[in-house]
Amino acid sequence: MTEPQARAAGGTSLRVTEIFHSIQGESTWAGLPCTFVRLTGCPLRCVWCDTEYAFSGGDRVPLGVIETRVEAFGCKLVEITGGEPLAQRATATLARRLLDEGYTVLVETSGALDVGVLDDRAHRVMDLKCPGSGEAARNLWSNLDRLTGRDEVKFVVADLDDFDWAVGIVRRHRLAERLDEGSLGALLVSPVWGMEDQHELAAAILASGLPVRYQTQLHKHIWGPDRAGV
To answer: Under 8 Å CB-to-CB from 25, ≥6 apart: which residues?
Structure first.
């Protein structure tokens, strides 16, 4: 266990908004059955956020109870999300315990908080904030040095200016090479839901020559954009 991971260890409960079983809607894992642990609280306020209901409230749940509820779904793929899951200290402990039990664990994080607290076996899906989110200044750039071939980077783009910004980040930090050990397409570009110029975005991706994966939010296509718990 590294020093950041040791500092994060501890904590016996988490504030939870919901735990549910659904189809994974994003990342290279999209389309697979997945159990989601959505934690409460987020220090960011992206202008296009679709989970504002997770900013507050929730219930304080012991880690053992969370594990029992996850086990009841019988699914070995688990995503810890939010809100911002790393805003709670015990998130790293939950991830480690689930990994020890044989689960594949994804952690969806904004990248604004230190991902070094997570067990190296976890798959970190880092949602770097483009300027259109209003929160690009919150990106913790040192996190990029912690990425491995099992991790993924997502850019949610509001327009072509956001995409151009993302291209610059990918090239400047050599993210395609850094993530090359893992699955093809671990660089994700996702249009904000309802974006009008998706044809132009697709053309821009093709013109960039980068190995990025264009994705939309599959769960919203299935259940609609306003339904929680999916």
So the answer is: 217, 218, 219, 220, 222, 230
